[in-house]
Amino acid sequence: MSRSSSLIVLFALVCVLSVAAAGAYLSQELDRKISVTEGAPLFVVNQGDGIIRVLQALEQQGYIRSAQASRLALTLQPQTLVVKPGEYRLRPTETVRELLNRFNNNDVVVYGFTIPEGVRFQWVLEKLWQHPQITRTLVDAKDSSVGELIKPFTSPEGLFLPETYLIPRGMTDLDVLKLAREAMERELEAAWSSRASELPLNSPYEALILASIIEKETGVASERGEIGGVFTRRLQKGMRLQTDPTVIYGLGTRFDGNLKRRHLRDGSNPYNTYRIFGLPPTPIALPGSAALRAATHPKSGDALYFVAKGDGSHAFSATLDEHEENVRRYQLNRKKDYRSSPSQ
Q1: The domain 24-105: what is its CATH number?
Q2: Cα–Cα dist 127/286, whole Å
Q3: Which residues fall within 8 angstroms of residue 215, CB to CB, at 6 or more apart?
Q4: Residue 268 CB coordination number (10 Å)
Q5: Do 156 and 75 touch, CB atoms closer than 8 A?
Q6: Checking CA distances to 175, which of 111, 128, 238, 252 falls within 20 to 30 Å?
């Protein structure tokens, strides 16, 4: 081998060794543990942040030693160059590589937002707007974006499933409503597709309306099916539902906490089930999964009436005479002007 050839080989070998050494060093930077001295601090990747900005922020905040070295090392792992926006909780034991992989996999901190069973849509909106991690975009319940979300219906009441939703920082109120709307669509479809035969209901929406009434009348969870059975049989027999929660819903802001007899005689209230036959025009609250099942799988029996016992549970009866006796037993001695539901 000539002298020049030997020099070329030697130079190539030096280059290879240099690249290997540099690669080892850069890889070592990625395998270095991040510098978290105590706790599990939060680190925010903002919308539009690229890998360079994220690494610089990590270096500036003292979590990594060298943003430049880490960025160069990432050229060996191009799949980790993408970061997803969100809020991340840093772990004292993780390496730079592991942290960047979490940025890439969107392993963000999530917060719970709970919609309880039986609340109204307005309650949900107000809680969304109070949540510190949720961004408000809606003006009010009549916002056009809400109207688009609930099509083909005109009222948002009842269309969102009570559940605990896990949401990342920066999610909007409309985003959360979309999750709850889609969840209700799935739950209602499942309940309706497996419904009992011969129900006096013509559509999933009617089942939703009935479920909302059941939800508002239920104080003890185990009674949902029985309450559903009472209302189902009354509908089948052409009897009025005669349930106070529908009247109260129709009164809106006019209700001051005291339901009066004149309210029950008010024929102008389309939700007054003491005057109308059948179901009210819309749901009166947000029913949960159990109420949907109670509406589509009501408990069989002969009860047509129920009265509150005062402990959250109800006494059920098949005849008006039995019902009136239950009213005297459980209510009249304690509340002179008590009305039961249903009453006739």
Answers
A1: 3.30.1490
A2: 14
A3: 117, 118, 224, 285, 286, 287, 288, 291
A4: 7
A5: no
A6: 252
Q: How distant is the alpha carbon of residue 336 from its chain centre?
A: 41
Average pLDDT per block of 10 residues along the chain, 344 residues long: 49 42 56 80 88 85 72 55 86 87 90 97 97 94 96 97 94 97 98 96 98 96 97 97 96 90 92 97 98 97 93 93 90 56 59
Question: Cα separations (Å) of 3 from 8, 12, 17?
Answer: 9, 14, 21
Residue pair 207/195 in contact (Cβ under 8 Å)? The answer is yes
Would you list the domain boundaries of the chain? 24-105, 110-188, 197-332
Cβ within 8 Å of residue 138, ≥6 positions away? 125, 145, 146, 173, 174
**3-class SS at 134?**
strand
Structure tokens at 14: 């030096």
